[in-house]
Amino acid sequence: MTTPNLKHFQWTRPPKNYKVSDHQVSITTEPHTDLWQKTYYHFVNDNAPLFQMATQDKYFSFTVKTNFEDSHHRFDQCGVILYQNSENWIKGSIEYENENFQHLGSVVTNHGYSDWATTEIPTQVKSMWYRLSRRNQDFCIESSVDGVTFQQMRVCHLHETTGTVHFGIYACSPEESSFTAIFSHFDYGECQWQAHDGQAPD
Questions:
Q1: How do the domains of the chain map onto residue ranges?
Q2: Which of 3, 17, 35, 84 has its CB 3.0 to 4.6 Å from that of 28, i.e. a possible disulfide?
Q3: How far apart are CA 140 and CA 171, in angstroms?
Q4: What is the pLDDT of residue 170?
């Protein structure tokens, strides 16, 4: 794994307040920014800032550490993202809920419909590592509290990923809130998600 050059990353909907150094990015969210497509809630939200790089590599892993100790309002969130367009993307993040718990979860959006898988974790957790891995059109999102031992959050398929993919980080505040998220320890390289060696395919 190597540290990617953050100069190769580009903003989609850049936030008003951010800082980018050689090894760290901070994003101060703006109120009413979010990512979601249709399912259950029926609304479409597609205005969160994204900071991504592009690759045609069919096998890779991307790792980043997030710090969100400033989050304090319902749905404040930051994490890892792979965003092709408004209707096709994946994200993994922690969303603040209240003083008792927050949601560690992931969203997969295919062809304009999102799903959301979550587990509750204590609000006292204020940093998290994420690892996003690609094997062709299949993806794995993992999380870790120490950057060493990762636990699987989601295995999924994204239809619109036959060629170049765009991946990186995001932060947003869907309600009337703002906080500063800090991203560090960027790594990119050989896929850490090993090929399946169990049951043979049909």
A1: 6-189
A2: 17
A3: 20
A4: 98
> Under 8 Å CB-to-CB from 197, ≥6 apart: which residues?
none
| Cβ neighbours of 192 (radius 10 Å) | 17
Cβ atoms of 154 and 114 closer than 8 Å: no
130 residue type, one letter: Y
Q: Is 125 exposed, middle or buried (0-12, 13-18, 19+ CB in 10 A)?
A: middle
Q: Which residues contact 158 (CB under 8 A, 6 or more apart)?
A: 82, 84, 88, 89, 90, 108, 110, 137, 139
pTM, rounded to two decimals:
0.95
Which residue positions in the chain have pLDDT lower than 70? 201-202
Q: What is the per-residue pLDDT across 131-154, written as a single tens digit (0 to 9) for each?
A: 999 999 999 999 999 999 999 999
Provide the CATH topology of domain 6-189.
Jelly Rolls (2.60.120)
